[in-house]
Structures
1.
Amino acid sequence: MEWCNDNGRKYWEYVNECEDSSIWDYLKEVWETMKQAVERGINTEGRLPGPLNLARKAPTYYVKASGYKQSLQSRGLVYAYALAVSEENASGGTIVTAPTCGACGVMPAVLYHSWKAHDMSETRVLHALATGGLIGNIVKQNASISGADVGCQGEVGVACAMASAAACQMFGGSASQIEYAAEMGLEHHLGMTCDPICGLVQIPCIERNAFAATRALDANLYAAFSDGMHRVTFDRVVQVMKQTGHDIPSLYKETSAGGLAKSFSNIIKTKL
Ligand code: SF4
């Protein structure tokens, strides 16, 4: 942020300085893959693999949302896009780990919705993607993006921080507003446990991606209303997330031995 402020530059320009020129072709490929996952997901009906017998929801959310007036439609479409990609992941489809498979629906939903509803250029999307990627890398470097290590705050929480920053970049936020959006995206997921039922990345993961995508858009809006000033910095919340993650018992870190997974294990055994 200091570099951006001192040089009058954006986060994506920092990425551009640090990477070689192939980064933009790579991000194009990432964006294409995200787009395809959204479009496949909203057009594929059926059941997800595994004993939970969950039906795919994205196509229904998409169709229903399309029939509403603008503000409800907008929210419903974001849900649909996030569900689409997370359901693709649950079915073994090709997705982008952003930052992980379990949290793969958040970034595409926010980028796809902003691109489509606001007629954004591809360049704008790529700059947003670079900004979100930078945020994800900061967490990966200084804390963790692994549910097994720090719980779901490190997966869906980080995806939300990345998407919050990406949305804020897309809609013209300043360096401090973008940092604030990312900070809120992570702060309000602090302590979130990882307790997937049957060890499958389905419940609570899929729905959680949809909520985090709308929360990222809220973080962008909240930051846009502010002047970017705030007490808790993104770097600090990353440290808190790491410490909180290490304080969380292993029951709640991808072992499926506690929480939702434990409470549903007997019901599932009876069904099987
Ligand atoms: S609950 Fe666990 S498996 Fe599911 S998305 Fe979160 S971290 Fe990943």
2.
Amino acid sequence: MLQANQLIKRYESDGAIQTVLHGLDLHIKQGEFVAIMGASGSGKSTLLQLLGGLDKPTHGDVFLEAVNLGSMSERERTLIRRRKMGFVFQNYQLLPTLTVEENVAFPLYSDGRSRTETISRVHELLEQVGLKEQMRSFPSKLSGGQQQRVAIARALSLKPGLILADEPTGNLDRKRGQEILQLLARLHREEGLTVVMVTHDIYAAGFADRIITMQDGRITQEVGKVAKSNDQRLENFVAKFNT
Ligand SMILES: Nc1ncnc2c1ncn2[C@@H]1O[C@H](COP(=O)(O)OP(=O)(O)OP(=O)(O)O)[C@@H](O)[C@H]1O
Ligand SMILES: [Mg+2]
């Protein structure tokens, strides 16, 4: 579903060139849940931004369902991003002046969906993430975990097949983080959603089918298929990770 070929990303600042990704290859299959781990500064967010077409590689290509993001116009890329991908960030990025339901409705509205479709989809999503009662609240009145659930509902509003999440549990305590991970895992399992999640947290990564680790802009390790049973999951993962 998502393929990166020989991705190189360089940044130039004050005449100095820094190479952040060094020719990275990656293939993510439809319906996979992949975690990307690595130290701070190893290039995880940069990679996610390139995969999501939010930024362009210096060299190399990203294909979404065999379509090259780099060959599209900015307008086409915006549409693809909106309809085929959902983004979730560490700091939720909700619009503070809009209520919960308005935040979730925003992509539908931007995409020109009818009033009836928008309202029924928003209600369905808020039901799914367990926030129907808070739909008229403003984000500042919600806990971090609730805000992230709104962000996930918003990301799913146009029914994308792919979620790109950058440290979605980074601002949450273990319990709230676990709720978010369980929600992503359920969407992955029940709706066949493809999830690519950057995380620092080995516990969060244990929810994935495959874990990719990065170091200095390169993929250094891949760990496949971790156990799906909840109690065994983390132990099996850690055991594999350490071999
Ligand atoms: N817009 C930019 N301009 C210049 N350098 C950048 C830019 N964005 C990122 N970098 C540099 O690229 C490197 C990788 O950054 P990136 O944000 O991808 O790391 P990360 O793995 O997500 O780190 P963290 O875990 O701290 O979020 C860092 O050295 C960073 O300073
Ligand atoms: Mg980052």
3.
Amino acid sequence: MDPYTNPFSPGAGSRPPQLAGRLGILEDAKIALGRVAQGKSAQSQILLGLRGTGKTVLLNEIERYAEEKNYLTSFIEAPEDKTLTEMLYPQMRQALRKMSVVESARSLANKALSGLRNFASVFKVKIGEVDIGVEPTPGVADSGNLEFDLTEMFVLIGEAAKASGRGWALLIDEVQYLKKEELAAIIVAVHRVGQKGLPLVVVAAGLPQIAKLSGDAKSYAERLFSYPAVGALNKEAAEDALVNPIQNEGAEIDPEALEEIIARTSGYPFFIQEWGHHSWNVAEGRRISFQDVEIATSRALARLDEGFFRVRMDRLTNAEIDYVHAMAALGRGPYKSTDVAKQLEKAPSALGPCRASIIKKGMIYSPNYGEVEFTVPLFDDFLRRNR
Ligand SMILES: Nc1ncnc2c1ncn2[C@@H]1O[C@H](COP(=O)(O)OP(=O)(O)O)[C@@H](O)[C@H]1O
Ligand SMILES: [Mg+2]
């Protein structure tokens, strides 16, 4: 069919034509934003799921809701190679600048900007060309202890936001790349602003990892956050994700074709877009058939193998590539680390650093103690296809 009218949207963070199966998560986010805006307590969310399950799309959607509810919003992607403070600084500054133009919030926003100056200097953030334009106030957010100083900054921002009659929503993608202390600092800071009833919300998303928090941060985190799992779509949602966009363009899909796409993609959103996209382009008439999907499958796999899957392999060293192949050779995951070691004929302890490095690169994760699994769905199939 006409590629110009193809409704599907494969691609990281691309808004799907039908955001299927996520009503519960979105409803919870809406309620939390609405409550916090009124100074009421609410559980924030940390969305956890594999790659391509639609976490970034959800964060974007939640950001849109926040804007509708008159929040100032900031969106950051936790960097692999930078510090949280470097990423946060320009966002906090921008939000405060916007608050400072509101008469009722000017003095509190300037107080916060002054604290931010200390914060930037104690954490050695490069301020760049544009200066912040306020004098530093000694003793504010300048202890050098991230947990303490970030909490102070969040409280200052929350107070300025409240005075300006708006909230501040901070969305953080790829939280798995945050260092343990950084995540802990955010959690402690969110706890504090929550206690004070300030209109500040943090919503985060990332790969599922076994809890890396300890102490106070951990006990707060358990109460403060909910951890909705963003997984494969169930059959009904997967059908919605495919059928509605096709019908909205005045086309149709045969039931066997639909079933085949769902089987091939296991209901994973990214793959649904990819298969939908190719099936649409392959189909001659206004109806997608089983045969169309078969052709689409070979095109989709070729494209994934060259792109989505390949770029992830390119980041691994040879020893790491051997490790992931050994995982795939064992069939479907999750895999016991000891079994992978056996497969490689090595001692598990000798493989520890290699395993840790692949986890750090976000390619595999540990769903349970002593186990590993791929963070990319169907990655084991790719590895077996490309041995
Ligand atoms: N609920 C959904 N229904 C259908 N497609 C979706 C859904 N959520 C995401 N997608 C599609 O899946 C792909 C991956 O989404 P993305 O948000 O980048 O995933 P993640 O951030 O989890 O890696 C995109 O092409 C997007 O259009
Ligand atoms: Mg993402």
4.
Amino acid sequence: MQTYKITSITDVTDRVRQFDLLVADNTPLPAHDPGAHLDFQIPNVGERSYSLIDWPGNTDTFTIAVQREDDGDGGSQAMHGLTVGDTLKASGPINDFKLNEGDTPRLLIAGGIGVTPIISFATQLAARNAPFQFHVAARSAGICPFRETLETTFGPHLTFWFDDTNQIDLQTLIASATPETHIFCCGPKGMIEAVRERAESAGFAKDQIHFELFTSPATHVGDTPFEVEIADSGQVFTIPADKTIIEVLEAEGVDVMYDCARGDCGICQTDVISGTPDHRDVVLSDAERASGKVMQICVSRAKSARLVLDL
Ligand code: FES
């Protein structure tokens, strides 16, 4: 765990704010690869992950961007309340979203604030003269984070798609990619699911499709508590509305394996013995979801009063 101090803050759009960070004791910044993130400990909120943005030549500071979610759980609002000179503890950099080896063509697709790790990929690919296309989708031009900087920096590789003028056509984009292309997508759940579906039906192998959710869909306003029974031990735990299964089990000393805690890596997948999961991941196929036999316990919840899990 490292303490970082905020050295500058820039408003990128009405809701997106950029933070530049240095290690508080002025020791060198830890090394990282494109796609890495820091896990910040936000007082009174908990852990939140933000991707490091590597613009060309930006090696002296860590840069993150935070979109304020007014109906969120308070993490982004707390971040927006910080001022220059404030400090934050964070672990990492951690990288669950890496560029593949070699110089295959890459199709980079970003939705909204999901552009942050994709910028780092584009910076590295452009520096290597590797072939890539960079597609950025947003609801409208006015709320597209970093629009002008993206244009100036990645112009020839870049295409903008705005829902109110020219909505992104994932079907055509993916269908026109060559078979050896690796596809990288970061954005909201619906976009990731659409990219995965279209890429798989266009014949791309699973290991050519890389994705990362930019927000955790773990808890929503209106969620209610439910029970989890551990099949092995018979222990029963109540999962409150504002906690995930993993958070509760870990706090109770149950050994659980997980990594991303966002529902996009698949590590925490658990067999369901009985009960009905409320799936919130982007890992499972439609058939797996419909079966109700497996779930990602880092984000998914229950539609039934109790889940019995094979743990
Ligand atoms: S820990 Fe990654 S999907 Fe649950």
